[in-house]
């Protein structure tokens, strides 16, 4: 096994990569450094797998992404938190909250960066940074909708303008991505409210169903049935609002598809 | 499974896609380094990444950007 690089050696390597004066030997050193995260990465991913989730792991960050981050943020290479990590995409925000709670139990010392309330250029997700033997491993936890937005932003950065995912790009792009991000946030905020309301309603429904039959004429039982009916109507109202919010979101996505088609036609 | 992807960001398309079983981790890491060194010699800026997923389908789900264009990403969200 090779001697590990010192922090100073790592940062000097980062400096050479940042200014583009690196040699082929430097790329091999960078590879050694990335591979030094392997054990920590395995530990984290295995724990998550045992828990039943199936993450997609990015064992080490690509050289291109590392160099771009060094240039963009002036970060020192030894301080980079996301050299290795994994991504878990869950169905919705309720499952996301549950999974974050699980991660906090699995890794009590972890740092949780919640970008849902304060998005980073529209990016919403929760990142959990776990330190294993001094090596940070980043776990990205996204809902399906947050993931859609992130993929959209990243792909736009690839093929349209690399600054888009950091808040750059034309006003039109920024505006469309911001609208979709806000719409996703509105859908998820409502999803949480809806899920809690449905759970409470179901408990209430079971309680009323278990009332003894001989209490049919009991005024209290009748009152409970009346309240259950009100609760049922409330859930129907929430369901309709949930659908409305989803339609707003789908409408934004459809409009973006049409806009992209127009752009393609203009280019031809 | 381990997947090696060489991706041309400007084109938004995959240049190289290779699969390895979990026991071939070392080969996958060596193959990635070889591609990175070769691209560096040629002065080509492609993203080269090793990803580990339960299946190719799972990989497509969590890293759709490598496989789909913008319209396909949007349509998949509407249809989900």
Description:
The complex is a heterodimer of chains A (268) and B (80). With 268 residues, chain A is α+β, with helices and mostly antiparallel strands. Chain A contains eight helices and five strands. Chain A has helices at 7-19, 24-35, 38-50, 63-73, 93-106, 144-159, 171-209, 219-267, and strands spanning 56-58, 84-90, 111-114, 126-132, 135-143. Chain A has a five-stranded mixed beta sheet with strand order 1-2-5-4-3. The radius of gyration of chain B is 14 Å and the shape is flat. The mean pLDDT of chain B is 95. Chain B has 80 residues and is an alpha+beta fold. Chain B has helices at residues 25-42, 56-62, 70-79, and strands at residues 2-8, 13-20, 47-52. In chain B, 32% of the residues are buried.
Please name the defining characteristics of this protein.
heterodimer, A: 268 residues, alpha+beta, 5-stranded mixed beta sheet, 8 helices, 11% strand, flat, B: 80 residues, 3-stranded antiparallel beta sheet, 3 helices, 3 strands, 26% strand
Distance between the termini of chain B: 25 Å
Molecular shape of chain B = flat
Q: State the total count of DSSP E strands of chain B.
A: 3
Unreliable stretches covering 5 or more consecutive residues of chain B: none
Which series of helices and strands of chain A comes N to C?
HHHEHEHEEEHHH
What summary fits the major beta sheet of chain A? 5 strands, mixed
| Low-pLDDT windows of residues of chain A | none
User: Regarding quaternary structure, how should these chains be classified?
Assistant: heterodimer
- Measured by DSSP, the beta-strand proportion of chain A falls in 5-15%
Count of DSSP-assigned helices of chain A: 8
Mean pLDDT of chain B: 95
Provide the fold topology.
The complex is a heterodimer of chains A (268) and B (80).
Chain A: H1 7-19, H2 24-35, H3 38-50, E1 56-58, H4 63-73, E2 84-90, H5 93-106, E3 111-114, E4 126-132, E5 135-143, H6 144-159, H7 171-209, H8 219-267
Parallel strand pairs in A: 2-5
Antiparallel strand pairs in A: 1-2, 3-4, 4-5
Helix pairs in contact in A: 1-2, 1-4, 6-7, 7-8
Chain B: E1 2-8, E2 13-20, H1 25-42, E3 47-52, H2 56-62, H3 70-79
Antiparallel strand pairs in B: 1-2, 1-3
């Amino acid at each position: 096994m090779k001697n590990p690089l010192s922090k100073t050696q790592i940062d000097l390597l980062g400096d050479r990569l940042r200014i583009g004066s690196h040699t082929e030997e430097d790329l091999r050193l960078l590879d050694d450094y990335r591979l030094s995260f392997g054990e920590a990465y395995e530990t984290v991913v295995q724990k998550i797998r045992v828990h039943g989730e199936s993450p997609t792991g990015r064992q080490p960050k690509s050289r291109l992404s590392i160099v771009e981050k060094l240039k963009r943020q002036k970060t020192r290479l030894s301080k980079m938190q996301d050299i290795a990590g994994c991504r878990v995409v869950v169905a919705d925000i309720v499952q996301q909250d549950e999974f974050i709670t699980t991660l906090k139990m699995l890794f009590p010392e972890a740092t949780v960066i919640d970008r849902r309330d304060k998005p980073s250029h529209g990016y919403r997700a929760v990142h959990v940074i776990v330190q294993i033997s001094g090596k940070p491993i980043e776990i990205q936890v996204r809902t399906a909708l947050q993931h859609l937005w992130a993929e959209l932003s990243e792909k736009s950065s690839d093929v349209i303008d690399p600054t888009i995912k950091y808040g750059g790009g034309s006003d039109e792009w920024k505006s469309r991505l911001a609208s979709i991000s806000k719409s996703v946030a509105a859908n998820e905020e409502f999803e949480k409210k809806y899920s809690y309301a449905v759970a409470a309603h179901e408990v209430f429904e079971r309680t009323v169903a278990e009332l003894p039959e001989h209490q049919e004429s009991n005024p209290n039982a009748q009152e409970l049935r009346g309240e259950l009916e009100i609760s049922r109507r409330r859930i129907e109202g929430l369901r309709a609002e949930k659908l409305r919010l989803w339609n707003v979101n789908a409408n934004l996505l459809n409009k973006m598809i049409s806009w992209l088609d127009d752009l393609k036609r203009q280019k031809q | 499974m381990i997947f090696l992807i060489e991706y041309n960001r400007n084109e938004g398309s995959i240049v190289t896609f290779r699969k390895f079983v979990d026991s071939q981790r070392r080969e996958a890491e060596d193959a990635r380094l070889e591609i990175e060194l070769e691209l560096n010699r040629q002065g080509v800026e492609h993203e080269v990444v090793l990803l580990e997923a339960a299946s190719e389908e799972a990989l497509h789900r969590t890293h759709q950007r490598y496989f789909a264009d913008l319209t396909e990403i949007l349509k998949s969200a509407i249809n989900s």
